[in-house]
Amino acid sequence: MNSNLTMITVLVTVIHVIVLAIMIWIRVRRTPGDGIDVPTPKITPCAVCGEPATDWSYDGLDPNEQLDSRTGKLWSADMSHYRPVCAAHSAVLCPPRESGS
User: Fold this and answer.
1) How far apart are CA 66 and CA 56, in angstroms?
2) Domain-by-domain residue ranges, the chain?
3) Over the stretch 45-101, which tens digit does the pLDDT of each residue have?
């Protein structure tokens, strides 16, 4: 029984030391609020109007474009045929075509 009590004491002590180390790390780590320089996030402009882009839209120029049979929308496996667009222009660059055309 003495060894069990010793084991419990050691485990509780180790847990306390780990928690203390984490608390110290949280307290002393540097954050943007401490005045350190943080690079501004890259904002990609919309290809149509220049507003901040929120999505990517297929431009319809890929000679190997694919047709999604479920939605009827064209798409490309080549990412160079996608342009950043804002919410207002997300369907303007390449609207869905009918499967007969």
Assistant:
1) 17
2) 1-30, 42-95
3) 988 888 899 888 888 888 998 988 898 888 899 989 888 998 888 765 555 555 444
Instruction: Give the residue among 93, 33, 36 at the shortest CA–CA distance from 61.
Output: 93
Query: pTM of the prediction?
Result: 0.49
The answer to whether 86 and 46 have CB atoms below 8 angstroms apart is yes
- Give 77's DSSP letter: S
Q: What is the mean pLDDT of residues 26-54?
A: 80
Centre a 10 Å sphere on the Cβ of residue 8 and count the other Cβ atoms it contains.
10
Block residue for tokens 């919309």: 46
For 45-97, list the strands marked E by DSSP.
55-58, 66-67, 74-75, 82-85
Cβ–Cβ under 8 Å, residues 47 and 83: yes
- Supply the Cα-derived Rg of the chain in whole angstroms: 28
- The Cα–Cα gap between 13 and 21 comes to 12
Residues whose CB falls within 8 Å of the CB of residue 36, separated by 6 or more in sequence, listed in order: 30
